[in-house]
Amino acid sequence: MQILDSEKESRIWPLFRLGFRVFFLGGALFACLAMLLWLLTLSGITVLPGVSNPIWWHAHEMLFGFTLAIVAGFVLTAMQNWTGIAGVRGWPLALVSGLWLLPRLLMPLRGELNPLVIILDLLWLPLVAGMLARPVLQVKQWRNLFFVPLFILFTLLNGLSYYAAFSGNWLLAERVFVTTALALSGLIAVMGGRVIPFFTARATGTDKPEPLMWLEKISLGALWLGVLGWLLLPRNSALNGLLAFVLLVAAVAHFTRLARWNSKLTLNIPLLWVLHLGYLFVPLGLLALAAALFNWGISVSLASHWLTAGAMGIVILGMIARVSLGHSGRPLDIDRPVVLAFVLLILAALLRSLLPLLAPGMTNMAYHVSALAWTSAFGVFSWVYWPILTRPRIDGRPG
């Protein structure tokens, strides 16, 4: 699209022609591997010999390893469309993806306290931020500069998570991980507001609902205020109540936001209903976290999985399935195996977040079956989309 030298493009391995290719495939494969290792760990099998705190490893890798890899791939690709400047490709993309991959491979063997692991893992996110900043500054498209400080925030949270691991402070680690989950939910809310109504209107031949500015400000503002509050506010009953109220306001606003997006029109279009269902987990997760702050029978860990296993997992799978087709020149059609992957992931989210709440005696089973369903869902995606992501576009265009 932006590359004029087709001969130069043809010399680049297709996997490194745009960010979505390497990060979507790498992230999906890592989602399978990391969850499989976690499932084996839950079963009492030693598969993380270097890791001193497997719970820390699981939370960290699903957020900073898996989720942010997908985010990086999406934004590095979308920035090309937004700015009209060719996206990162070739050896720079291979470099940043390699910096992402090395800590993922080394951590199970060397552990989360290994200096090399920490240094490598703290390098790749700022590098992505720099790659995003260049085209935005070049065309002065200030709206999309938002992603640069966001990646810096994720870098700081990543560093703070390693500090918590080094100091053995699990309460700090949990605070950082939930803050990260909320911030990623905020990113889903920002991007979801841009694309979900647009995709729905285009696929159903209906008018895109115009955003209500007051609703946008309340829904996004309250959510980002919740991010800051969760990270910075001391834990006491009065401030917990205040933070819970902010999260409740955000939840109601996001329910209202989603209700305006014509979800009922998507029932026969899997690439749409998966995004609508995934987004539904955002306000559900905010409600669950508010209930945890009020001590209403749900733990913070369980509440946070409405956002992680639910909103992030489902929206991510729906988005990477759609974006991979569109950016490889293919029609937006999926076969039954991918629909099955959607169903498996929704099942995984419900088992992990809802079943322990309804039947505490089945919690251990919920963990195992949910992990197996998650692994299967991303395994199916990796199998179906491997040729799509590792081969050139079918229409002969660059990307």
UniProtKB/TrEMBL annotation:
Ranges in a coiled coil: none
InterPro entries reported in the protein's UniProt record: NnrS (IPR010266)
Chain segments annotated as transmembrane: 20-42, 62-79, 91-107, 113-133, 145-164, 176-200, 212-233, 239-259, 271-294, 306-325, 337-359, 365-386
Keywords: Membrane, Transmembrane, Transmembrane helix
Keyword Transport included in the entry's annotation: no
Annotated Pfam families: NnrS
Keyword DNA repair: no
Protein name, UniProt field: Heme-Cu protein NnrS
Gene source species: Oceanisphaera psychrotolerans
